## 1
Amino acid sequence: MIEEGRRVDLVGEVLDQQLRDFIGRPMGNVDGLVLELREGEPPRVSHVETGGVTLARRLRGPLGGWLAAAARRWGATRGEPFRIPWSRVKEVGLNVDLDLDADATPAWYWEHRLGRIVARIPGS
Amino acid sequence: MKLTPKQLVEVALGVLTSVGGYLDVGAVATTAQSGAEFGFRHLWVLGLGTLVVVFLVEMAGRFAAVSGHPLRTAMRERLGFNFFVATCTAEMVVGTLVLASEIGGIALALQLVTGIAYRWWALPAGLLVWALLWNGTFGVLEKGVALLGLVTLAFVVAAVKLHPAPGAVARGLIPGGGGGGGAAHYWFIAVAILGALISPYLFWFYSAGAVEDHWDEGHVATNRMVAVVGMGFGSVVAAGVLIVSAMVFLPRGIVVDDYAQVALGLTTALEGSRGFYLFAASLGVACLGAALEASLAMAYVVAQGLGWVWGESLRPRRAARFSLVYTGALLVAVVPMLLGVDPLALTVFSMALTAVMLPIAIFPFLVLMNDERYLGRHRNGRLSNAVVIGVIALGFVLAVVTIPLQLAGG
Amino acid sequence: MSAREAHVELLLGRVVHDAAGRRLGRLEEIRAVAHGGELFVSQYLVGRYGIAARLTTESLLPRVAHLLRLGTRRDGYVIPWSWMDLSDPEHPRCTRPMEDLPGIADDQPPYRPL
């Protein structure tokens, strides 16, 4: 849990930082950060987003459209952004440490699929 | 300089980076051409290039050691996704061309030894590089290439045996012009040498290598030494190539057009066919090291920017996406040689592209090396920042001047 | 009452206008404070030089000058969360005129002195 009263710069310290799972393995970057806007209350950071769908939205021009289509067709989440509730964030430092198992998330979907193919090649 | 056995092993990373990133097909081509046409008068350019590379390599290593993040990871984190996409795309395009040139270098070395045309060696060379990456670990590659790299010292031995006049060598170390006619060509070669020596992929590689070797804050002093000794090794060998070329070709008025001629130079210098084979071995090893580095650098750029699992020390099945990037890069890179593209022409072209990209590649150093979060008290001082700004300025000059010079003086 | 959403990565770099429609600059940073393990937005930082700030936290030239110890001068505004209207995420609006806004001072993070 982030210590009480700690000031965090969302762009400089959280956005685009590398995500690590509960045993320190890399599972992508903070590609997006969702704010919950509430009437009369300060916006609350509600989710971390990661994955091609989120990245596609950030790209301007045709590249973004192409990436979005590719994510819908082949992505682990079939076009839905992969959201991680902020409550799963343990610490924000040089990395954003999560209380999640990377193997159980869409972040490693393609790592696993390709890993099975790679395993058939001798020497791997 | 006394080195402990442990430090000696660590120097291996520096020497590998040097043999692969610094001394490669481009460096051999440009220094050989320089010596044949201008004698020792480009030695100061070599010195300048070495100085620049030593500074930047030291920064790349310090950053990785202190923060635990390789440069490319931090570039995505600090400079944002759009910057990452632009630079990643450029690195992939240029990197593939550089990789193709290095494979061409390996193929040419094999052609020299066997007489069989380099086109037939493209696929085996690519396969060899791939097999080494797939089956090897970072440590094995590091030490293996560093050991093999010792064969390039043949150039230094040859240079010494030719007894160059110390006065002439010293004059070459002082910055100056080419004198007389052909000023455009003199500066074209100077720019080509710098473009060949200062390749961004060598910084990405070294930075990732520091993480692969588990360097930490305690390695800051070692890193400084490794940068100097490692890059110093490559620069001494490059100087050897230049001096041999100057002493063998210049008096005879031979212009260096292909690598067979350069082989001839070593043959003459070392008296006999031993020199010929040593040259082929040196070229082959340098290009093998460069090919390993260039392909790994591309995989590092992609994987580190996208937050994938990465590492040459990992078995491919544990870093599948990472391993497939260098596999794909190699598959594409063998194509030009298979199609019979001239390796020397491709080398010159890819060096020009690298030079054009240099300012954008070096600019992140300015931001990252001053970032308190990553480096704490190991941030750049005023001198290091001035050097980076100077290199960016130099990079702009190279970028602007490369293409016109190539048209005018190449 | 439905909660609406905004995305930090899409707000970054957007031009922010004040209540009178004058241009304040581009959104550079969103500061937050932790309470009970949650993060709540406290301020929006709007810089005169815009998206280049993502690269350098300030504009390039002043930053290079700062690195060489040639002096500093940063420009921009700090907008408290309650004065920011994000109903149109593509056009963030400050609900006060620019005269009411505190300027970005040299020693405030993320503009830390080097």
Note: The mean pLDDT of chain C is 74.
## 2
Amino acid sequence: MTKIANAQFWVHDQDEALAFYTRKLGWEVRADVTMGEWNFRWLVVGPPGQEDTGLVLMPIPGAPMLDAESSDQLGQLVAKGAGGTLFLETDDCQAAYDELSARGVAFNDPPTPQPYGIDTSFRDPSGNNIRLTQVLEFSLDRH
Amino acid sequence: MQPLARHLLRAKDLADARYFEPLTVPDLARAAGVSAAHFSREFRRAFGESPHQYLLTRRLERAAALLRNTDRPVTDICFDVGLTSVGSFTTSFRRIYGTSPSSYRAGFPPARRHIRVPACVAQAYGRPQNRTFREA
């Protein structure tokens, strides 16, 4: 194998997720293909400058993939924040925080010094966690 | 249309982010946009513990981290994490960690203090639990 091509988040509403990742985060649409007979939309977004890696915004599936109860449970788990975390990097955590805040991203915490760098976090509309880190040389003095 | 749990998650995020402020359960209810009358029950249904319990264990987790990672006095750490009574801090800490704040600190020599994992992971997994916890 050679690389990670796409990672995936479950989302409650693909239109809402698409608006968040493109308009608020400033990401690009990599693929947006609707397969009508399956009632399925393959939707992939990614950050400018990293063309070969994407994030698939996958709708919470119903039948035939999941029965109604399982589908509801998955939707609830994502809403509770148990859907997982995407770890992003930036060259300047404060600048990214300022720029994204101005576009309406509600951060959970301000840029915070940690031994491994400076980081902050926010969630997408479905509740998926996104960590944004400016990696610095490991230092126990920075906490 | 977002599930109720997504709104309740905002309360949890607020506790994680601003535990050092004088936050109360009504503040958390407002963050979730849920009426105070239903909030604690719905939070417990979604996350398996009351919002009061979540906020207190977050504060104790942060206090434990400060005891391990800094040389700040125990009294300062109590206020640093949003608690206002040193007596109840010590009592809660002992109930959950099984030892006093200062003897907890003594068990962590400097070389063992830092783990190279993201802070969110350390916070999520490091928050203590106590099944015998009683509501205040």
Note: The helical segments of chain B are 4-18, 25-32, 36-47, 51-69, 74-80, 86-97, 101-106, 119-126.
